[in-house]
Design goal:
- By secondary structure, the protein is mainly α.
- It has a single domain, classed as MetI-like fold.
- The protein is built from 13 helices and no strands.
- The chain has helices spanning 2-39, 57-62, 66-97, 104-112, 119-130, 135-142, 159-184, 188-196, 201-212, 214-229, 233-238, 250-260, 264-291.
- Helix 4 packs across helix 7.
- The longest helix has 38 residues, at 2-39.
- The two termini are 44 Å apart.
């Protein structure tokens, strides 16, 4: 009987302990999400107390809005390039750091440092390199390579790749640490058995390393997809979406419609639709990569 009473008390205490955090989570996550869904069916301008219910008008307008269309595909391009190139760079850094070369601890800190710096600071810093009168063009002129100079940030053929480069550079260290953790978790016995079986080089990478670090790939894939799709700071600080919306992203389209256009209802519909898109994409990614995970 005493055991049952103690069990009930522990259960009540557990619920009371979790309740504040749960209420905070609901307040800052689910409540804004529900409000966003509600306002997506209105013509609210974000300031007035009155608004009208417009039904599905905002959602149908999204598919006719050319700037939103361009922003969506810009975002998809940036996310795809950052995910593919970023994965290769992060995994390559992890393999190098896993060799425990002299000074590897210093390199770990140096590679990780950019991800703790504000993206705005990083964008402003890199803009000094990529401006028309910036460091890169100055260096090219000094080397008499004027034919390669260009306005890197205001050329629609290069601006998205510049954003991808900066984003990959910033998060290379963060992802490499996750991959390095996965590499360090592989028991030494597996590597010894691998050598005895004659599996080296690419065979070792394909059949031993990649399957065993699949949990790290799952985590990095999730972070990479969600982070790249929500990118805002870097393109905003570099070009504010220019030239001619060539570097505009969905998050920028949401902000522009909400604050510049005073169309909070329409911006809410874009945000909610894009939230659903990210949710479907990430759930699919998690299911696919988790199926490839193996136990050892």
């Amino acid at each position: 009987m005493l055991t049952l009473k103690n069990s009930k008390k522990e259960h009540v205490f557990s619920v009371i302990s979790v309740l504040p955090a749960l209420l905070l989570f609901i307040t800052v996550v689910y409540y804004p999400l529900v409000k966003t869904l509600f306002f997506s069916f209105t013509d609210w301008n974000g300031y007035s107390k009155s608004f009208n219910i417009v039904g599905m008008k905002n959602f149908t307008q999204i598919f006719k809005d050319y700037p939103v269309y361009i922003s969506f595909w810009n975002t998809i391009y940036i996310a795809f390039v950052c995910l593919v190139v970023g994965t290769v760079v992060q995994f390559s850094l992890a393999l190098i750091l896993d060799m425990e070369l002299k000074g590897s601890k210093i390199f770990k800190a140096v590679f990780y440092l950019p991800c703790v710096i504000s993206p705005l600071i990083i964008a402003i810093t890199w803009s000094q390199f990529f401006q028309y009168i910036g460091i890169i063009n100055t260096l090219l002129n000094t080397l008499h390579l004027e034919m390669f100079t260009r306005d890197w940030l205001w050329n629609k053929d290069t601006v998205k790749n510049i954003i991808c480069f900066i984003n990959v550079w910033q998060w290379a260290g963060y992802g490499s640490i996750i991959y390095l953790t996965g590499l360090n978790s592989i028991p030494a016995e597996i590597y010894e058995a691998c050598q005895l079986d004659g599996a080296t080089g690419l065979k070792k990478l394909r059949y031993i390393i990649l399957p065993l670090i699949m949990p790290a790939i799952t985590i990095n894939g999730f972070i990479g997809i969600t982070g790249s799709l929500r990118i805002f700071d870097i393109p905003f600080a570099l070009t504010q979406g220019g030239p001619m919306n060539a570097s505009s992203t969905i998050t920028m389209a949401i902000v522009n419609n909400a604050f510049d256009g005073q169309r909070f209802g329409y911006a809410s519909s874009i945000g909610f639709l894009f939230f659903m898109f990210i949710a479907v994409l990430t759930v699919t990614q998690l299911r696919l990569t988790r199926r490839l995970e193996v136990e050892y």
